[in-house]
Design brief:
There is one protein chain. This protein has 151 residues and is mostly helical. The chain has two domains: 1-43; 59-130, Cytochrome Bc1 Complex, Chain D, domain 2. 58% of the residues lie in helices and 4% in strands. It contains six helices and three strands; from the N terminus they run H-H-E-E-E-H-H-H-H. The protein has helices spanning 3-42, 46-56, 74-81, 88-91, 97-110, 120-130, and strands spanning 58-59, 62-63, 68-69. A three-stranded antiparallel sheet has the order 1-2-3. The model has no long low-confidence stretch (mean pLDDT 92). Bound molecules: heme C. The site of heme C has 16 residues, from helix 3, helix 4, helix 5 and helix 6.
Length: 151
């Protein structure tokens, strides 16, 4: 083989490599384009994002959507205690651990509340910690009393 043949073969190899590179670039572009379209289709729209944000919002220690106090077990309580009735039934009540336990038992026996399984103790702890009976101290001193004369 003389030099001219070498050069021609080399040129052919270089041309083939160029073609391969162009094809690879095109495939790469297609994959990126399709991947972007796919991701875009999976992205939640703004309404869904706003709703999810609202559902999570906690202001001054209160879960805004339900009115429940923030605390360990809040999520379980939202999941298990708000499908049937408003969380107001919880927030307007105060009970001891035993009280909450028996309320739950009453709902299970008469209102189709499901078995809370392993979550029951976390739920009762949350309720007993955050919605315990308010301690009643000694009543305040009476002031500005208008006494009247006994006959
Ligand atoms: C399957 C439905 C359901 C679920 C879930 C449920 N409840 Fe109830 N609950 C009821 C019904 C029905 C009532 C009675 C409502 C009424 O009287 O208007 C009630 C009443 C209550 C009351 C008021 C009881 C009373 O003496 O007046 C409280 C407190 C309460 N629920 C707390 C909870 C808690 C805490 C959970 C989560 C562990 C929960 N509920 C989950 C159905 C449910």
């Amino acid at each position: 083989m003389d030099n001219r043949q070498y050069v021609r073969i080399l040129q052919m190899v270089v041309d083939a490599l160029k073609a391969v590179v162009v094809v690879l670039l095109m495939l790469f572009a297609i994959v990126i384009y399709m991947g972007y379209d796919y991701l875009e289709s999976k992205r939640p729209n703004n309404t869904a994002i706003a709703a999810a944000d609202a559902a999570l919002e906690i202001t001054n220690g209160i879960h805004v959507q339900s009115g429940l106090v923030e605390g360990e077990g809040l999520k379980l309580v939202i999941q298990n205690c708000t499908p049937c009735h408003s969380a107001k039934l919880i927030t307007q009540n105060r009970m001891t651990e035993t009280g909450w336990k028996s309320t739950i038992q009453w709902m299970q026996e008469t209102q189709n509340l499901w078995d809370l399984g392993d979550n029951e103790s976390s739920i009762i702890n949350y309720l007993a910690n955050n919605y315990a009976p308010q301690k009643k101290g000694r009543r305040a001193q009476l002031e500005n009393i208008e006494w009247y004369e006994m006959e």
